[in-house]
């Protein structure tokens, strides 16, 4: 299926209903999403993409995160980023993460500890 300008991407289709429920408004300032909710949401998207990719045996995560026609470049970039971040995680924590949420929270915890 060809991509048409303005057509919602797969990530947009999966994310929009959830994101609209997570966005909060305040009296002063713009809309926001709590970091904890964002982490849970990212974990949900990652897990969904992993399950779809495993079931369909394709690069569904890349399709979710890229505009059609740019998949190859995005795949290479994502693989490099993931490899670098996993190596850094292993060095700092001393083991591989068991879940995607653990991977995200470990970075957040280090950030909070460094500010205190």
How far apart the termini lie comes to 51 Å
Shape: globular
> What is the strand content?
under 5%
Please give the number of β-strands. Answer: 0
Overall pLDDT, averaged?
A: 79
Oligomer: single chain
Radius of gyration: 17 Å
Unreliably modeled segments: none
**Helix fraction by DSSP (H/I, runs of at least 4):** 55-70%
Structural class: mainly alpha
N-to-C series of helices and strands: HHHHH
Topology overview:
Blueprint: H1 10-22, H2 35-56, H3 60-65, H4 71-93, H5 100-115
Could you please describe the fold and organization of this structure?
There is one protein chain. The protein is globular, with a radius of gyration of 17 Å. It has helices spanning 10-22, 35-56, 60-65, 71-93, 100-115. The mean pLDDT is 79. The chain is mainly α and 116 residues long. It has five helices and no strands.
């Amino acid at each position: 299926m060809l991509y048409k300008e303005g057509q919602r991407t797969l990530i947009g289709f999966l994310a929009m209903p959830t994101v609209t429920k997570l966005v909060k408004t305040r009296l002063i300032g713009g809309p926001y999403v709590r970091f904890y909710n964002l982490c849970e949401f990212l974990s949900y998207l990652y897990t969904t993409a992993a399950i779809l990719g495993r079931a369909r045996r394709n690069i569904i995560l890349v399709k979710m995160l890229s505009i059609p026609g740019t998949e190859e470049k995005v795949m290479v970039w994502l693989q490099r980023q993931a490899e670098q971040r996993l190596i850094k995680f292993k060095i700092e924590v001393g083991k591989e993460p068991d879940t995607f949420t653990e991977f995200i929270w470990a970075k957040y915890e280090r950030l909070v500890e460094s500010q205190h």
